[in-house]
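User: I've been trying to design a sequence by hand for this structure and keep getting stuck. Would you show me what you'd pick, starting by listing the structure so we're on the same page?

Assistant: Good idea, let's start from the same input. This is the structure you sent:
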């Protein structure tokens, strides 16, 4: 399964979604009210209920766009680096650079959004169903990257690709736990851990030199 391109929303509908996404940077889902969204977007109530079944449908659409956008960005870069690399050391070096860049742009608020979406999906069957194909497509992209590495003789053939895929995805939201503590890890130490984890599965044939 590969990512399917969702048809674009009507400009008015997308403006409402964009308003919710912007508000979520500083406000929790439970505190976003329809009247605040309408006031901030400058759109009346009629178009909201023309484009969305209800206000919850608007919130879910915003959640889906946040979830899809973040994870697709990671996986598309992952596959691109591995596919284009002609040798193992180049792939390893470029992936390390990608991990460092992602970590340097780390945002606690954005991470909390994504964890919040996962939490909401666990208790909301309708949202979970909408996220199903997106999540499976993301997992399949990670598995595709792993298979490319296997075909090139880089990855560990004894590991199950789906299990590796789920583990690697979970590592990208791991710092939410650090955010819950008053004593925080050193970001550089976290980057070293991510690189070590990645190399342990995808680049086991790489030189141990940095």
């Amino acid at each position: 399964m590969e990512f399917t391109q969702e048809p674009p929303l009507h400009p008015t509908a997308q403006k409402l979604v964009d308003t919710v996404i912007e508000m979520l940077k500083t406000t929790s889902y439970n505190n976003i009210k329809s009247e605040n969204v309408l006031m901030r977007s400058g759109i009346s109530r009629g178009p909201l209920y023309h484009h969305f079944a209800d206000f919850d449908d608007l919130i879910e659409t915003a959640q889906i766009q946040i979830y899809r956008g973040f994870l697709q960005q990671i996986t598309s870069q992952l596959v691109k680096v591995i596919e284009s690399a002609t040798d193992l050391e180049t792939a390893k070096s470029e992936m390390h650079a990608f991990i460092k860049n992602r970590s340097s742009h780390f945002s606690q608020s954005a991470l909390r959004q994504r964890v919040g979406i996962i939490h909401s999906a666990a208790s909301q069957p309708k949202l979970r169903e909408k996220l199903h194909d997106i999540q499976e497509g993301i997992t399949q992209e990670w598995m595709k990257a792993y298979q490319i590495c296997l075909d090139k003789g880089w990855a560990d053939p004894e590991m199950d690709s789906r299990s590796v895929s789920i583990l690697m995805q979970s590592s990208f939201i791991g710092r939410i736990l650090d955010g819950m503590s008053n004593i925080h890890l050193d970001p550089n130490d976290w980057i070293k851990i991510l690189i070590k984890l990645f190399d342990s599965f995808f680049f086991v044939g790489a030189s141990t030199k940095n």
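That's my pick for every position. To get oriented when you compare it with your attempt: The two ends are 35 Å apart (CA to CA). The first helix runs from residue 11 to 23.
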